[in-house]
Amino acid sequence: MLCPHCNARIEPGISFCGVCGAPVGESALPQQPARSRRAVPWWWLLVAALVAGAAAFGGALLLFGDDEPDAAATTEVVATTTTTTTTTVPTTTTETEDGDRDISRLDVVRARGRLNCGVNDLMPGFGVVAESGSYSGFDVDMCRVIAAGVLGDADAVRFIPLTAAERFTALADGAIDVLVRTTSWTASRDGFGRARFLFTTFYDGQGFLVPASSGRTAVADLAGATVCVLAGTNAELNLARVFEGRGIPVTGAAFQAVEPLEEAYRSGECAAWSADVSQLAVFKARIEAEEGPEQAILAETISREPTGPVVADGDDAWAQAVEWSVIATVQAWEFGLDSTTVTSYDGDDPLVLRFLGEGGFDPGLGLDPDHSVTIVSEVGSYQEIYARNLGPLGLPLEGTLNALWSDGGLMYAPPYR
Question: pTM, whole model, 2 decimals?
Fold first, then answer.
């Protein structure tokens, strides 16, 4: 099956193209049924009425719930319920004609007490899972940043591994709250994919990895070669369009997973491997560390690939909470704060003090005034997160687009005021 919008191959059962994000069929991830933007379950209306009544009499009603509740947080529900049902929870925040407010995913995540974050589990430096089941990587840490900002606990997160083909379907179906999986921001994904791309956390571009002994030093040198790409990604689409546009004949070999792709490249089945340069650097280092042949990344890139967190369209409250949680890591870096100093700042800079929550400044983002302190103390500044995950792989920060704007990069935090 081919995507009707971008012509990319689509696996059976996938409802959103993994390349451009366009809707193409029924979902393969049945965790939650499809919903309309304004669909509100009857029991939410009942709860809203009870809350309104309680407020009128000065009472308070605490609501906790989730399709996979934590036992400690839902004792009363478990004690009085004998069956388990799956209920669609609306994820938009809109005002109705009567002034009623739909439930945002921000409310849902807080009621659940856990963030469901879609990640990669096979990409060193960005997202991998150890034999113990623990996750690590740059994108994984950004999930922890969001959990720290929204829930006050960086460990209150469930990592859900997704393939490139599954990611937009999982986001649209509500199987995840946020997608942080080396997913490039493009117009089609933003438009067709019912996805909202937030603050860019990593600026990248598509390049080519070749054996150094091949003598290839430019993209034109790949004429007549077979190039490996991962199916369901921008790399597959860019490869076809760029080479066709330049009149350079190549054969693209698309693989559904990284492992067979790497095996094909190592065996010589493919003369080159095309992906984001950051990913190629990881595999270059790994091949050479295992005493494989020396590798080279061609100097030219054929695309721009900005990546960052992605949420479902239509929920401003959730998008703001996620975005400003991530921005806090860049702002801390700019202020010279990190996990070892953020709780002991004793200066008098009013901008820093506001950022740290002094005076209870609330810009209406749905976050606690001291959310930045929690984020940076538990996970770190952007610089720390980058150095911890990508530095060991030979990916420099200094002199790249991911450096601070004051150092020639593109990292720039909007004013927190």
Answer: 0.74
